[in-house]
Design a protein that fits this description.
Elements lengths: L1 H10 L4 H26 L1 H15 L44 H13 L1 H22 L10 E7 L15 E7 L4
Antiparallel strand pairs: 1-2
Length: 180
């Protein structure tokens, strides 16, 4: 850009003002390129600058005061209401026996015997629990052991791999106890 401005000034002596303006704009661009040279040269400078920019956004001003908000010290119920006290952890069992009604006892036992959906649900629950136990068993180490024994007798006169015949029978015992 500077070269083209100088060439233009040499060719046309009457247009010196436009050449000066072109040189000034080139000088401004050159100064700006010197300022931005570290940015172009190192990507780490860019990442550091971006980090500092975002970190500055997290800062709270020096005069920040938390606003005071009036809150009640505790919740107060009105007279007909009271805090709930559920007894879900208590086993229910035969809850109907608390009424001491023999007819109700008969109805409940009959309903439990004839209600197949409860039985199906109970068996499905047992099946799901068994499946969960099987799935969780893979999380624990496994230990297996086995014992094996072999006894073999090779007869006399049988050819061997070396070509030498055995003169007497050969008895071999193998015992194996693998642990994994």
């Amino acid at each position: 850009m500077v070269r083209s401005a100088v060439k233009m000034a040499k060719r046309t002596p009457g247009h010196a003002t436009s050449a000066r303006a072109a040189l000034k704009s080139c000088r401004k661009r050159f100064k700006l390129s010197l300022v931005l040279a570290p940015v172009k040269a190192s990507p780490s400078f860019l990442s550091c600058a971006a980090f500092l920019f975002f970190l500055a956004g997290c800062a709270v001003g020096p005069n920040y005061h938390r606003p005071d908000v009036a809150t009640a010290p505790a919740w107060k119920e009105q007279p007909p209401w009271r805090s709930a006290d559920p007894k879900d952890s208590i086993p229910k069992g035969n809850w109907w026996t608390t009424f001491a009604d023999s007819e109700l006892d008969q109805y409940e036992t009959q309903a439990l015997k004839s209600n197949q959906t409860i039985e199906v649900a109970r068996y499905q629950l047992e099946q799901a629990r068994a499946s969960a136990r099987i799935t969780q068993s893979g999380l624990f180490p496994h230990l297996t052991a086995g014992i094996s024994a072999q006894r073999a007798q090779t007869s006399a006169g049988r050819p061997t791999t070396t070509g030498i015949r055995l003169t007497s029978p050969f008895l071999s015992n193998d015992f194996l106890i693998p642990f994994t």
